[in-house]
Amino acid sequence: MVYNLPEELRYAKTDEWLRIEGDTATIGITDYAQDMLNDIVYFELPEVGEDYGPDDNFGMVESVKAASDLYAHIQGTVTAVNEQLEDEPEIVNADPYDKGWIIQMSIEDASNLDALMNAAEYAAYLETR
Amino acid sequence: MKALEPTLYDKSVPDRKGITLPELDVPLSEMDAALLRDDLALPELGELQVVRHFTRLSQLNHAIDLDLYPLGSCTMKYNPRLNEDVARLPGLAALHPLTDDEGSQGALALMFQLQDWLAELSGMTAVSLQPAAGAQGELAGILMIRAYHQQRGDTQRDIVLVPNSAHGTNPATVTMAGYRAVELPSDENGDVDLNALRAACNDQVAGMMITVPSTLGLFEAHVLEVVEAVHNCGGLMYMDGANMNALMGVVKPAELGFDVMHYNLHKTMSTPHGGGGPGSGPVAVNEKLAPFLPGPIVVVDEGADEDEEAPRYSLQMPEHSIGRLKAFHGNFGMHIRAFAYMSIYGASGLHEVSKHAVLNANYIRANLADTYLIPYPRMCAHECVISGQIRGAEEVHALDISKRLMDYGFHPPTNYFPLIVPEALMIEPTESEDKATLDRFIDAMKEIAREAREEPDLLLTAPHRMPVKRLDEVKAAKELVLCCKPALPPSAAAGN
Amino acid sequence: MSYIPHTEAERQEMLAAIGIQSMEAMFDAVPAALRFPTLDLPEPQSQLEVTEIMTALAESNESAADFALFRGAGAYHHFIPPIVNHLIQRGEFLTAYTPYQPEMTQGTLQATYEYQSMMCALTGMDAANASHYDGATSLAEAVTMTRALARGRRNKVILSPNIHPQYRAVVRTYHQGGSVRIDGDDGAVERNDHQGLLALLDEDTAMLAVAYPNFFGEIEPIAAYAEAAHSVGALFVVVANPTALALLKSPGELGADIVVGDGQPLGVPLSFGGPYLGYFATKQKYVRRIAGRIIGETEDADGRLAYVMTLRPREQDIRREKATSNICTNQGLMSLAACVYLAALGKHGLRQVATLCYQKAHYAARKLQELPSYQVNQSSPFFHEFVLICPRPVREINEALIEHGIIGGYDLGKDFPEMADHMLVCCTEMNRKEEIDEFVERLAEVGA
């Protein structure tokens, strides 16, 4: 199985991606994650203004088969939440990197990003699973 | 949408009366209107309509009473009707749980006997009948292990080892009890990987939970080494007794070295599964853990007059009890049924139960070995695990085989568990089934394997002979319609 | 052997098919020294003998079958229409298991869905699960759920001291390994100090739980509690008696977020304390955090209406160590009994049951209040239970009553040492007027 893994994103072992633009990170789940989950039926999402640390889970994604915690991987405050996911969670299956973004957070500590993988590293990591 | 059977609310007619009660025979007291509700959205049906409704619904179910129900790890054996009748004797069914000990000696004697028998069967010292189900028994067991370590001041222990073949309740229980679950791999024979176990054993380990025989339906080849490794690092051993139907008179868990275990009376002791419960999950412990048992338990009063013929029983909280797990004294109705079942069999009979349960499972295993992949091809215990991957029919999955089995009149085996076997089908026939029934099942499984290769669509779109076809589970999970609309409060109903 | 069908000839054929000579050969993997131990259990008995033994045990008990019962305290003696037992004993219900395979378990699934619906109607909630073990464990699961909803940010749980003492004990058992702090009961505030209880609410509070009616039978100001809990962002949990809800304002109407309780009064026999069922109902917005089984509506491949277990992914078999509860069974047969009971009585019948309970308890209270040496606690309105302050220890009074075929009220001194002369009296539709009159008369004698 070949997964779509855009070059410009950072990846986490828990299958989130982060798009870094200035001091803002957009967070979603990878093509691999949406494929494993299959039909996504629900997102539990945080409120704008809530603070999270790198190891905190900020929400949950649920399919018929599985429920997974979502991790922030960075220290920061939630600045936006994709409200479209409340009614149409399935858009993450169709378009995990664009319309299917989950939250945006401010980046308070850029060093958090060092622990993340690039696309090639994540692809290699997927091979091991 | 067309329904198989309209709901009670669909059938409700305003002002139709069901069963009525006697007229008020005392002078009327005023009621404060401010406390009262305006409406009560319950259905309104006549008695015959209710009888027909539930009778029709019952006919949409598969049940042990209809045919084989080989759901692995659930022990779907015959539920004797004697048990049902004795549980409904008025002196038991109409006994209030807070009756004084003097007025409940019969019930307490029954519970005491059952505690005693379950202790003997396991080789353990003491038993509490409190847990309402196996999962509660597990929670009790791990909380007792925790209390034991804490009382000794051994407070750094914070992990519980669990094999990767374990039932999901084991790791969930560990988390509930405030510990961390550490998963251990299995070796190529399906046993606990001893090297990995020994590497994981240290002074952080509070204990280990394993199922005997394992969830793969196998007698662990080196169970004594597993127990020894955990004991050597100061941990205690928990035995998940879900598979006790293979062990009666075969081996006593306490003699294998286990410190605590639970029974599932609804599996091993034939109490009915009732469409999902009630269960009953007594815990049995050795001397180390006896003071921590959940309570109350039934004891014989020490102070009673020794000249009296019958002992006097009372309820008592063990000295360092982890507390109560439910209100009152456990699922007493299930204790009655288990007591009746054990009385019927006695020691020799219970041993025969286990032997025949194992015989039936091995008979199925031996007869399916040419048709299906058996991941661990050795003598099995009371259940056998096969793989639903059929050579020459790659698009067919365990789920499709399961659905097709329904068309042959059988309930499917447990599927996709244990997780470490791809496409697992776990078959537990129990001792209740005769050879002819097993032969019909074996023939069906062979025929399905043929169909999988020659007419795979038959499987992929199965079942074909059930009241409904495969269901849209995504729709159910997304739309979450969980309640008949007329039952909803007006505010919520308006919002829908 | 009673329930094993094998003949000797079949056994031999089966052993041959397996390729072994003896039954014992199947157990070679069990350590030889420990294999086939002696079991010190009684000899097998016939069905007739077991019936005789059990009948003797049953008849030695003092049950509501032979005695007039004025005891409740969490378990209630009600009339159970015969169709309840007849229908739940149908083998298709009795001997089925969890509806993992919906195509062959639509009966259990639809009945459970209807049970959920009627519990919503009673509680004023939007969703109910397929049941927990009992009312006490439902409350313990509510603690887990409200803490999960607060994502670990709120660590305090306030339990009213007027909740059933055994329920409060179960919450403590369940949560002894966790970080939750339980406040409000066990002497934290006085029993009737409503303001003191509310003063404990703060930003760290995940939930406030109160009982309706409470353990002492009283109807407390539920709406005021709800408002106070919500004002600090805590969830409000009500432990309710389902029979009372046929008359009283629903907890949903009064502001509850979660309603739990024991469904035993709905068609389940006393049976010395179990099996009962814990009902659990909440608002639609919290429904994905409910532990245990829940049934939803869907359709099959042909577009036919059907039912299925839903919200499975958060359960222990899938989430394993990340699941918040290890529950897997529900009290299936008991929730079916409750479902048949509610259908059989319907809206009119259940109201009638509740009205009879209320009226008879109030009649008893009025008569007892007339006795010079007794005093009825009248500080709050009550439903079908009330506290009677007696001139002697309740234990002594009950010993005297039993001689007259009466099981008196619950001795509150067993749970509250300072209440040794306080009796919790319960009346239901099962107590005829003559029975109540005799109860009052005998109490007058004992108290004189």
Which structural traits does this protein have?
heterotrimer, A: about 130 residues, six-stranded antiparallel sheet, three-stranded antiparallel sheet, globular, B: about 500 residues, alpha/beta, Aspartate Aminotransferase, domain 2, Aspartate Aminotransferase, domain 1, 2 domains, 16 helices
User: Please, what is the average pLDDT of chain A?
Assistant: 93
Largest beta-sheet characterization of chain A? 6 strands, antiparallel
- Mean pLDDT across every amino acid position of chain B: 95
**Whole-number total of structural domains of chain A:** 1
Please tell me about this protein's structure.
The complex is a heterotrimer of chains A (129), B (496) and C (448). Chain A is built from four helices and nine strands, in the order βββαβββββααβα. With 129 residues, chain A is an alpha+beta fold. In chain A, the strands form two sheets. In chain A, strands 1-2-3-9-8-5 form a six-stranded antiparallel sheet. Chain A has a three-stranded antiparallel sheet with strand order 4-6-7. Chain B has two domains: 82-342, 3-Layer(aba) Sandwich (Aspartate Aminotransferase, domain 2); 350-470, Aspartate Aminotransferase, domain 1, CATH 3.90.1150.10. In chain B, 36% of the residues lie in helices and 10% in strands. In chain B, helix 3 (81-87) packs antiparallel against helix 11, helix 5 packs parallel to helix 11 and helix 11 (332-368) packs across helix 13 (435-454). Chain C has 448 residues and is of the alpha/beta class. Chain C folds into two domains: 68-80 and 346-447, Alpha-Beta Complex (Aspartate Aminotransferase, domain 1), CATH 3.90.1150; 83-341, Aspartate Aminotransferase, domain 2. Chain C is built from 13 helices and 15 strands. Chain C has helices at residues 8-18, 47-59, 82-88, 91-94, 106-123, 135-149, 165-174, 194-198, 222-231, 316-319, 332-369, 394-402, 433-447; strands spanning 68-69, 127-128, 156-159, 181-183, 205-212, 235-240, 258-262, 278-282, 295-299, 305-309, 375-376, 385-389, 406-407, 410-411, 422-426. In chain C, the strands form four sheets. Chain C has a seven-stranded mixed sheet, sandwiched between helices. A four-stranded antiparallel sheet of chain C has the order 11-12-15-14, covered by helices on one side. Chain C has a two-stranded parallel sheet with strand order 1-13. In chain C, strand 11 and strand 12 form a beta hairpin. The model of chain C has no long low-confidence stretch (mean pLDDT 95). Chains B and C meet through helix 2, helix 3, helix 4, helix 5 and helix 6 of B and helix 1, helix 2, helix 3, helix 4 and helix 5 of C.
